[in-house]
Amino acid sequence: MNDKTHLGHTARKRFGQNFLHDDYIIDSIVAAISPQAEDNIVEIGPGLGALTEPVAAKVNCLNVVELDRDLAERLEKHPTLRDKLKITQADAMRFDFGQLVQGDKQLRVFGNLPYNISTPLMFHLFEFADKISDMHFMLQKEVVNRLCAGPDCKAYGRLSVMAQYYCNVIPVLEVPPTAFIPAPKVESAVVRLEPYDTPPFLAKSMKVLNQVCSMAFNQRRKTVRNGWRDLLTVEELTSLDINIGHRAENISVEEYVRVANYVYDRLQKEA
Questions:
Q1: pLDDT of residue 115
Q2: Is 45 annotated in some ligand binding site?
């Protein structure tokens, strides 16, 4: 058997496909998700159904969003799954997850995310944070480290700030390459993201917060005094109690929100 072929399906590089096949890891992930019968739950990229089957066995209905048409058709014909699944053949990066919300039942989201789209996909999902109760994702271990990283850490970046703005981030377990077919060249890990009902630090504009973070991290070797030169004066930064000698990776989520809110208020006055 070709090492990229599993259950008769050849993994497609353009979709970043790596199929999970380790029963212990699968059981551990399903236990972490802890699906309940009435859950409004959605899987992103079900692939060959390694997680789909055990989760579907525990719930009344499972939504799945799958980009690969062949895999979506395969699930439609699956002898035990087809009656449990609501299949959407779509690109999760452009999909409106809000349409899956039923009344006041928030979504529970999980998936073994293709590594090549995991970061932009999470940014897309954060837009629906108020409609999601929790998310469990298999990701490249490096990405999980970035999600969890705090200030003064090399892994701390824009993804850390935005994820921690929206969610409580909890690492769940590490997964070796041998758990997949084909085996990826990187270590993987599972993370749990729990969106806050109300973020601990409330940004007045997510657009401005994103801009402030991007501006800082795009020039992460510069101090914020220089990185934010076009945005804020030294006097303004000092008045906001920001250390002008700090770099992007030294600024806390609370400080990013404080700076963004100041910039937003000033823009409103200038408008």
A1: 80
A2: yes
Question: Binding site annotation covers 150?
Answer: no
CB 26 within 8 A of CB 180: no
Question: From CA 112, how far away is CA 248, in angstroms rounded?
Answer: 30
Q: Is 16 left (phi over 0), alpha (psi -120 to 50) or beta?
A: left
Which residue, among 57, 44, 43, 52, has the nearest Cα to 7 in the 3D structure?
Answer: 52
Instruction: Please state, in angstroms and rounded to a whole number, the distance separating the CA atoms of residues 188 and 111.
Output: 13
Q: Is 91 annotated as belonging to a binding site?
A: yes
Q: What are phi and psi of 113, to 5 degrees?
A: -80, 135
Q: 50-67: per-residue pLDDT in tens?
A: 899 999 999 999 999 998
pTM, full prediction: 0.90
Tokens of 40: 């409004």
66 is in an annotated binding site: yes
- Buried b / exposed e over 118-147, threshold 16 CB at 10 Å, is bbebbbbbbebbebbebbbbbbbbebbbbb
Residues 109-157: tens digit of each pLDDT: 999 887 888 999 999 999 999 999 999 999 999 999 999 999 999 999 9
Cβ neighbours of residue 228 under 8 Å, at least 6 residues apart? 212, 215, 216, 237, 259
| pLDDT confidence of residue 17 | 53
